[in-house]
Design goal:
Low-confidence stretches: none
Distance between the termini: 22 Å
Strand content: under 5%
Length: about 140
């Protein structure tokens, strides 16, 4: 289980580090913020898509281990299932976090920034500590 916890911590911190690198690159103008112009209709479509994705992935990531199929796999094979679903949970939150951060600086639309902040605030609720991994991985049927 220690190996799984280390792997999950990499997946936990990687999107945060990537988002911080993007912020530094845009704020120091290594990459020019607001320089990309997809047109107002395309930005509207991207914003709508990212809002739907963000609103959908937060509850899914928080309740992923309560889904019956996932709980069954965790009971049968705790370590591989914990790794698979733990990575899935962290990617569900991490990928939109990085995308929203990049889209914010590309468009300078604050909605993307707010969604990135919300995802960043949700991440600590799924922090892969050893105790949490053992509890969720070794969970028995209630």
């Amino acid at each position: 289980m220690d190996n799984v916890v280390k792997t999950l911590k990499v997946y936990f911190f990687a999107p945060i580090v990537i988002a911080l690198i993007l912020v530094v690159l845009y704020e120091t103008e290594v990459i020019m913020p607001g320089a990309v112009d997809f047109g107002s209709q395309n930005w509207f479509l991207i914003l709508t898509f990212m809002e739907l994705i963000t609103v959908a992935v937060i509850p899914l990531a928080l309740y992923l281990f309560k889904i019956k199929r996932v709980r069954k796999e965790l009971d049968e094979t705790p370590v591989p299932a914990m790794k698979r679903y733990g990575i899935m949970r962290l990617l569900l939150l991490g990928v939109p976090l990085v995308a929203n951060t990049d889209f914010y600086y590309m468009s300078m639309n604050t909605s993307f920034g707010y969604m990135a902040i919300i995802l960043l605030l949700v991440l600590p609720f799924v922090y892969p500590s050893k105790a949490r991994c053992e509890e969720e991985g070794g969970r028995t049927k209630e």
